[in-house]
TrEMBL record, chain A:
UniProt protein name: Extracellular solute-binding protein
Pfam families according to UniProt: SBP_bac_1 (PF01547)
Signal peptide as annotated in the record: 1-31
Source species: Cryptosporangium minutisporangium
Residues spanning the membrane: none
Keyword field: Signal, Transport
TrEMBL record, chain B:
Signal sequence segment: none
Record InterPro entries: MetI-like, MetI-like_sf, UgpAE/MalFG_permease
Protein's name in the database: Sugar ABC transporter permease
Localization annotation: Cell membrane
Lineage: superkingdom: Bacteria
Transmembrane region(s): 12-32, 74-96, 103-123, 157-181, 202-223, 262-284
Keywords tagged on the record: Cell membrane, Membrane, Transmembrane, Transmembrane helix, Transport
Database matches in Gene3D superfamilies: MetI-like (1.10.3720.10)
Annotated family: Belongs to the binding-protein-dependent transport system permease family.
Record keyword Electron transport present: no
Membrane-protein topology: Multi-pass membrane protein
Length: 440, 294
């Protein structure tokens, strides 16, 4: 009682302390500057970009000065950057604090974007675009690819529409008397011939999370051998990555690594170095998506010249049920919108609508980037870009990449192990065991 | 003074604010983290009570043994390296470099103040194998050896991490142990020298026993620091190749923040805390007997 009485005697000081604590907590709670809208309009239109992608920030900046100048006046564009490797954790932290910026690069693992949607952090863009009467601006191919990724919903804006495949250096193949391979066996024979001639056959990264450059080979081999729904079967629990048929796919890539086809040390090579190795003529093949067109069409980056680059759909595997027409397609580095920031903020809504209407033309004109947005046909594109545009328009059947159905943990583990697989240090069986153990 | 320290209210006034701040920034988060071990989920999906599921997962996690083994191996190797090299340097300062000591001390201490990420990038370049050959591999090739893919295999990556972390921190332990050596009375040393004690005998019978308290402190600092190592390994290898150089700290970080599994991340953190406590208790217990045994 005496203690209680003593506290009562110090009530002003006690009240002040509680007040100060409440003030600190409330300030901390409002600490995010991500553009979340808690009534009224946000000051800026904030976009969280990744260091590895310069096309999207460049295009948005161009838009802010041209077609979206009015929107930029009311809500100036602010671009923040984040390393791709830590994007997922940054998004989780921001979402946890309710501080997601208005627009951001969608998570590396589609499962995370889906999770963000489920908890109300990410906007259903399909509905938003439809409500604004702009659904014509999203190409059907992009829409269906997004829906395949996100359980029938369009949760991202298709700032890219990519096909993936194997790009090759025409001159290196010609100099070594190699015809463009159409089967896996021909491709491996080409690797052997190039290796014997002292040319690095494949350039793909395997350093840390950039190991996806190697794991894409695994996914494609499996899909060619087991059919287009092979990886979906794993996601549905109808097959396991450790099944012999699946481990065989990983082993085929490990065998390439053992022979040194991925170069001296894929575990030391990051994405930029891998691209540079191919673009400067130091390797004959690279597995890459059409997002690399902006680099290939840039003579400063691609010294071998865009006209010297050919595109090859992943070849068939003998006895396999998959065909070369089943092209790996994706919407690459896509943009997601914060639901909290969008709802009730007319300025943010205007910005998003402006992007949907104008992004496609600007990205194609300035960066040779094929997007999932409609273009008005006024942009003249380089020959290589035109070829890929035609390939995309001819797609009948698309497949997803190796990790598309994996949760974030298995995606990270798979991509971190890609380098060791590409150097032949990991057997196919061990690789699949490691990834499989992290699927649940 | 006695009246002040004997008064409970005075003690409360003097200690209260510090205790409150400590409780808020240290104890509360620790207890909070402990609470998370009984939950599953994340800030996005929400949390649900999981009972002892996280502890069961811990015992069945195939990635945990390699992570735990790397942590222990790293802590043992780096602690030995840091304290041994630091002690050797401290002896060098005291007995051989009395005049030029300050210059050498400054030079050796310099890496301690460098940002960890910068040191990590520096060593990446030093030991580079591809696409360029780093200075270390160039030197090997000059002497007729083959270049080594340092970051391509677990054992070699561990070696580079050990070299980097010992180089980075030996200056700190050298200074710490140097101050301990300075406390040894000169007359004791002189008396031993007059009695004809050799250098080795001086070190074994006088210097080591008299500097044992600061040696023990260094060991405790080092072992706890190395068990919690994160930034240097993350900057140098990112935990790779694969997960071969992933310590518990990095595994906990990935689990909590990259994979969004806060409950299991907290359970890994608890494992690390228990490991730190056990090792510290072991060192204190082992060294408490040493002076009595003479």
């Amino acid at each position: 009682m005496a203690r209680a009485f003593r506290w009562a005697g110090h009530r002003p000081a006690y009240t002040a302390a509680v007040g100060a604590a409440a003030l600190v907590l409330s300030v901390a709670a409002c600490g995010g500057d991500g553009g979340g809208n808690s009534g009224g309009s946000a000051k800026n239109f904030t976009f969280l970009a990744i260091n590895e992608n310069t096309t999207i920030p460049t295009t948005l900046t161009t838009l802010s000065k041209s077609a979206c100048a009015d929107e930029n006046k009311t809500q100036p564009l602010v671009i923040k950057k984040q390393a791709q490797g830590s994007l997922d954790q940054q998004l989780q932290l921001l979402a946890g604090q309710g501080a997601l910026p208005q627009a951001f690069i969608a998570a590396n693992a589609p499962a995370l974007t889906q999770q963000l949607f489920d908890n109300g952090s990410v906007l259903d863009l399909g509905n938003a675009v439809k409500s604004a009467g702009l659904e014509e601006n999203i190409l059907p191919a992009a829409g269906s690819t997004i829906e395949a990724l996100y359980d029938g919903k369009q949760l991202v804006l298709p700032s890219e529409l990519n096909i993936e495949g194997i790009w090759y250096n025409k001159k290196l193949l010609q100099d070594n008397g190699i015809a463009v391979p159409t089967t896996w066996e021909q491709l491996v024979a080409a690797f052997a011939k190039l290796q014997a001639a002292g040319v690095q056959p494949i350039s793909n990264a395997g350093k840390g999370g950039d190991g996806w450059g190697v794991t894409r080979w695994v996914g494609n081999y499996i899909v060619r051998e087991q059919g287009p729904d092979a990886l979906k079967k794993v996601a549905d629990g109808d097959a396991k990555l450790t099944d012999a048929a699946y481990a065989k796919g990983a082993q085929a890539i490990s065998d390439l690594g053992k022979k040194g086809y991925f170069g001296k040390s894929p575990t030391s090579i990051d994405y930029a170095t891998a691209l540079n190795t191919f673009a400067t003529g130091k390797a004959a093949f690279i597995y890459m998506g059409s997002w690399a067109l902006s680099a290939f069409n840039d003579p400063k980056q691609t010294t071998i010249g865009a006209e010297n680059i050919g595109f090859l759909k992943f070849p068939t595997v003998s006895g396999g049920t998959g065909t070369a027409d089943q092209v790996s397609a994706n919407v690459g580095t896509a943009i997601a919108i914060s639901k909290k920031a969008y709802d009730g903020d007319k300025n943010t809504q205007a910005w998003v609508e402006c992007i949907v209407e104008n992004y496609g033309n600007v990205a194609l004109r300035d960066s040779s980037q094929i997007t999932g947005f409609k273009t008005d046909g006024s942009v003249e594109v380089p020959a290589l870009t035109k070829q890929i545009q035609d390939e995309i328009s001819n797609i009948q059947d698309s497949v997803l990449w190796f990790e598309a159905y994996f949760p974030a943990k298995a995606t990270t583990v798979s991509q971190n192990s890609g380098g060791q697989l590409g150097s032949g240090q990991l057997s196919g069986e061990k690789f699949m065991q490691t990834v499989s153990a992290n699927l649940s | 003074m006695h009246s002040v320290l004997g008064d409970r209210r005075s003690i409360a006034i003097l200690l209260g604010p510090a205790l409150l701040v400590y409780s808020l920034v240290m104890l509360l988060p620790m207890l909070w983290s402990l609470g998370y071990t009984f939950f599953t989920g994340s800030v996005i999906s929400g949390f649900s009570y999981a009972g002892t599921a996280n502890f069961e997962k811990l015992f069945n996690d195939p990635a945990l043994p390699s992570s735990l083994w790397f942590t222990v191996k790293y802590a043992a190797a780096i602690t030995l390296g840091q304290v041994f090299v630091g002690y050797a340097l401290a002896l060098l300062y005291v007995f051989f470099l009395r005049k030029a000591g300050s210059v050498v001390r400054t030079l050796v201490f310099f890496p301690v103040v460098l940002p960890t990420v910068a040191v990590g990038l520096l060593f990446q370049k030093f030991f580079e194998f591809a696409p360029q050959t780093g200075p270390v591999n160039s030197m090997l090739e000059t002497f007729g050896f083959e270049a080594v893919d340092w970051f391509g295999t677990p054992g070699k990556a561990f070696f580079v991490i050990a070299v980097m972390d010992i180089w980075r921190s030996m200056g700190f332990y050298a200074i710490l142990l140097y101050t301990g050596l300075l406390d040894i009375p000169d007359d004791v040393m002189e008396a031993a020298a007059i009695d004809g004690a050799s250098t080795w005998r001086l070190i074994r019978s006088i210097i080591v026993p008299l500097s044992l308290p600061v040696l023990v402190s260094s060991l405790v600092f080092s072992i706890n620091g190395t068990l919690k190592a994160f930034d240097s390994i993350y900057a140098l290898t990112g935990g790779g190749p694969g997960n071969a150089t992933t310590p518990l700290t990095l595994y906990m970080y990935q689990t909590s923040f990259a994979y969004g599994d806060y409950g299991y991340g907290a359970t890994i953190a608890l494992t690390l805390t228990v490991l730190c406590l056990l090792v510290t208790a072991f060192i204190f217990r082992a060294t408490r007997r040493a002076p009595e045994q003479g």
